[in-house]
């Protein structure tokens, strides 16, 4: 999603304008975070099997997943003109959030086989957890506090990579 033209706020914002302003601010923060994580991952000179490189890659993929989910969720909120539309889309997004939450909780507790690529599994879960956090960020701005239900505890970092 390309950045929008800067908006100058000169008066007291209505609810829709406050949502747009908060979405823009959060988008800037998430973009900055993804760029920082990407620069630290690309700047690492360690080998691919090094645990620090694996952690940096997971953090980078997590930030990208979070940014992409936030962008897709916020684009629909930006097109809403009425409070009823915001509520309807927030309900749809919260249903999707809890479906992904349940999927991650189920898959995170399963024992993985050694034949399954652990690097691919780590990448997948890092992106999916990022998506979950991005949806939660957008829902929080829309007025739904899904942070009351924290992400499921998934041991995705101590995955051993097969070199």
Explain what you see.
- The protein has one domain (15-148).
- The chain has helices at residues 15-43, 51-78, 83-109, 118-142.
- It is 67% helix and 0% strand.
- Helix 1 (15-43) packs antiparallel against helix 2 (51-78), helix 2 packs parallel to helix 4 (118-142) and helix 3 runs antiparallel to helix 4.
- It is an all-alpha fold and 163 residues long.
- The protein is built from four helices and no strands.
Task: Write the topology of this structure.
Elements: H1 15-43, H2 51-78, H3 83-109, H4 118-142
Helix pairs in contact: 1-2, 1-4, 2-4, 3-4
Number of strands: 0
What is the count of distinct domains?
Answer: 1
Low-confidence stretches: 157-163
Mean pLDDT: 77
Helix content: 55-70%
- Which overall shape is indicated by the principal axes computed on the Cα atoms? flat
Cα-atom radius of gyration: 18 Å
Question: Helix and strand succession?
Answer: HHHH
């Amino acid at each position: 999603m390309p950045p929008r033209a800067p908006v100058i706020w000169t008066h007291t914002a209505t609810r829709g304008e406050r949502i747009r302003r908060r979405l823009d601010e959060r988008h800037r923060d998430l973009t900055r975070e993804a760029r920082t994580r990407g620069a630290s991952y690309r700047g690492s000179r360690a080998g691919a099997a090094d645990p620090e490189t694996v952690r940096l890659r997971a953090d980078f993929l997590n930030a990208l997943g979070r940014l992409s989910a936030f962008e897709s969720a916020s684009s629909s909120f930006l097109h809403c003109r009425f409070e009823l539309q915001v509520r309807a889309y927030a309900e749809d997004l919260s249903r999707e959030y809890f479906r992904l939450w349940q999927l991650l909780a189920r898959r995170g507790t399963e024992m993985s086989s050694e034949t399954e690529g652990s690097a691919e599994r780590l990448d997948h879960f890092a992106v999916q957890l990022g998506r979950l956090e991005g949806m939660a960020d957008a829902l929080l701005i829309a007025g739904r506090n899904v942070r009351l239900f924290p992400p499921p505890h998934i041991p995705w970092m101590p995955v051993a990579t097969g070199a």
